[in-house]
Write a structure and sequence with these properties.
By secondary structure, this protein is an all-alpha fold. Helix content is 80%, strand content 0%. It is built from nine helices and no strands. Helix 2 crosses helix 9. InterPro entries: Multi_antbiot-R_MarC. It is found in: Cell membrane. Belongs to the UPF0056 (MarC) family.
């Protein structure tokens, strides 16, 4: 078991999903809910995220094979998407790559926001899914898959705890503090995206 790999995978999820950066959105989407309903929404959203990422982790290689996509090509595509989201985060924004105004309006009118748009596409968005598929395809032994699945479960518990304390954290950090954390996560995410693109280019053009 490569603990370094699982730690890298876990930290990548933390940077890409950025649950602390999503706190203002979570508070806004659940503003009409009671404290009990808000906690239930947080639990359902994070459970849905774990399920989505686990399914992606297990079926990642199958998805690539189904569409005859090489891992190198997917690395370039996924890495590019991660870079776009990271650039948006560096500006202190979630970015239209994760959600747009039409989705915001739809969410405001919805009774439950736990699965859509909170879990998908805000948390388990294209960036997170792309990252999981890349890791699953590259480190596809059952030992590594189980290790990364454990990392997903730990991430889900951590994210749930953060959302459960959303009101307190939001009051302590404020919008400025959350923006600072979002920019730091964006910088880490940008580095991850560049590394993924670099590995993809080397795979497509071995002579480079």
């Amino acid at each position: 078991m490569d603990l370094t790999l699982y730690l890298q995978f876990f930290l990548g999820l933390v940077a890409i999903v950025n649950p602390i950066g999503l706190l203002p959105v979570f508070v806004t989407l659940t503003s009409h809910q009671s404290e009990v309903e808000r906690r239930r929404t947080a639990a359902i959203a994070n459970f849905a995220v774990v399920v989505i990422l686990l399914v992606t982790l297990i079926a990642g290689q199958l998805i690539l094979d189904m569409f005859s996509i090489s891992l190198s090509a997917f690395r370039v595509a996924g890495g590019t998407l991660i870079v776009f989201i990271a650039m948006s985060m560096l500006q202190g924004k979630l970015g239209e790559v994760k959600h747009n105004k039409a989705e915001d309006r739809e969410a405001a009118a919805m009774e439950s926001v736990a699965v859509v748009p909170l879990a998908l596409p805000l948390m388990a968005g294209p960036g997170a899914i792309s990252s999981v598929i890349v890791y699953a395809a590259e480190y596809n032994s059952w030992v590594n898959i189980l290790g990364m699945a454990a990392a997903v479960l730990v991430f889900g518990l951590m994210s749930w705890a953060i959302f459960r304390m959303a009101s307190v954290i939001f009051k302590v950090l404020g919008q400025t503090g959350i923006n600072i954390i979002t920019r730091i996560m964006g910088l880490l995410m940008l580095s991850i995206g560049i590394e993924v693109i670099s590995a993809g280019i080397k795979g497509l053009f071995p002579g480079v």
